[in-house]
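Hi X.,

You mentioned you wanted examples for the new student's onboarding notes, showing what a folding record looks like when two proteins sit in one file. Here is a clean example. The first protein comes first, with its sequence line followed by its structure tokens.
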Amino acid sequence: MRETNHTRDGLADFIHIDDSLASAPKIQFRIPSKGAVYTDTLVLEPKLDIPNGSYFIPIKIGDIPVAHVVARKFDVSYDSTKKVGLATSFPAGITEETLRRIGVRYRLISLDSPIEDQVKDLDVLILDRRSLTLESRITEAAKELQKFVEAGGHLLIFAQESAEWGKFALRGSVHLSQASDLSATIGVTTDESDRLLRFPNKILAEDWDGWLFLRGYNRVTVESNADTKMPVRVAEDGSPLVVSTRSGAGFRAGRTSATRSRRG
């Protein structure tokens, strides 16, 4: 939440959410002068066990609606027997919060200790967005990560920056070039036969409707390779948004876009 004062007077009030579907406690704010900015976080708490769907929830200053949050409710299941690790430079960030909400039991990978010792008992390792840029030790540990995958581990790589990706030994046939295209209307095609989109949750092309896509932070090209699949693509030009590659007994998957919910 980001508020800017566009008047010549100071502002002081409460911002909150009080809706039949969800609420967020009142937060008092003061913005003393024109052009000053106030930022904070409203913690949304659902009131009801609502059915699956998309919902438009008003944000209020005092009693006046000034913006909205679009919330989407959907069912998610996961294999609770899998041991999951997360390497991130964003503690309590979006990825960690998502895992927590789904109920996944995970542990954070400390980059101050050898990665090999920490991943040997994992089934899944997640490299969070920009982790190759913010944590050079991940790039240095590429051989250990390759061993993890070849032994049967699943490595999930979120959006990375092209310069650091080019140095990463596990990049395989996937190449990135810097770009920043934002659109609320990108059409998506999906390969519904791909296991990534069938298990444990079935994901259809229409499930991507109403989201913003920031091709974060790259355009993607993939060399012809029988082991590389592109289950989610941009409909217009076929460029991939999700790429997966087999390696030994294991599996690497990368999300080539940064995707975020629409907010009003």
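Then the second protein repeats the pattern, sequence line and then tokens:
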Amino acid sequence: MPIYLDSYPPRPYDVLGTVYLNDTKVEMGYACGRAKALGADAIIATSKGYGGSASFGGSYTTGNVYPGGFNANNFGAGFSRAMTKMQLVAIKWRKNA
């Protein structure tokens, strides 16, 4: 299915509906499926922007105690990802244009 980003199709069309996405990397397949269910021939991306970020992380500590002292080791990892928002318009080509 054609997706028009930052441009409009070169031929006449009718608007069938709008699909809103919160994370374009994950949901573009969902948007195409919804547009096809509406009978769309193509999608136009009308707006996009930053929707926030998600961060995940964790750590753990190990240690040993022995006579006269102790030692400890700390290990950690983190993950951060930008989230985007997008509004998509499902369109159908006009037959009599």
